[in-house]
Amino acid sequence: MAQFIKVAGTADLAPGEVRCVEVAGKKIALFNLEGSFYAIDDTCTHRGGPLSEGEVSGDEVTCPWHVAIYNIKTGAVLSAPAPRGVASYPVRVQGSDVEVEV
Ligand code: FES
């Protein structure tokens, strides 16, 4: 059953920052976009590039390996060569904890 799990503190990730977190056996890219947190799978659906190491522009992230573009808020793929989007996960802030539902 899905549950919210703490993955970071709110102070750990400044606006504009992203990091890879591991939770429940999944690698998840956690983004802070202007104070709101979003979580999507870290692994690009093309050849497995780490999206947490990609360039962020607005609400889009570019895979560092072959420049596929994803929507950070939904995980949808916006640009080839990735064949499909990645999973996105609900995020909530509880006090100073950032929690992801997995
Ligand atoms: S691994 Fe991400 S675009 Fe190729």
Write up this protein.
The chain has 102 residues and is mainly beta. The chain contains no helices and eleven strands. The strands form three sheets. The chain has a four-stranded antiparallel sheet with strand order 2-3-4-9, with no helix packed on it. The chain has a four-stranded antiparallel sheet with strand order 5-6-7-8, with no helix packed on it. It is globular. It starts with a strand and ends with a strand. The structure holds FE2/S2 (inorganic) cluster (FES). The site of FE2/S2 (inorganic) cluster (FES) has 11 residues, from loops.
Characterize the overall form: globular
Low-pLDDT residue intervals, each spanning 5 or more residues: none
What's the number of extended β-strand segments? 11
The tally of helices reads: 0
Rg (C-alpha, Å): 13 Å
The secondary structure category is: mainly beta
**Strand order, biggest sheet?**
2-3-4-9
Overall pLDDT level: 96
Q: Largest sheet, described in full?
A: 4 strands, antiparallel
DSSP strand (E) fraction? over 45%
Distance between the termini: 8 Å
Residue share in helix: under 10%
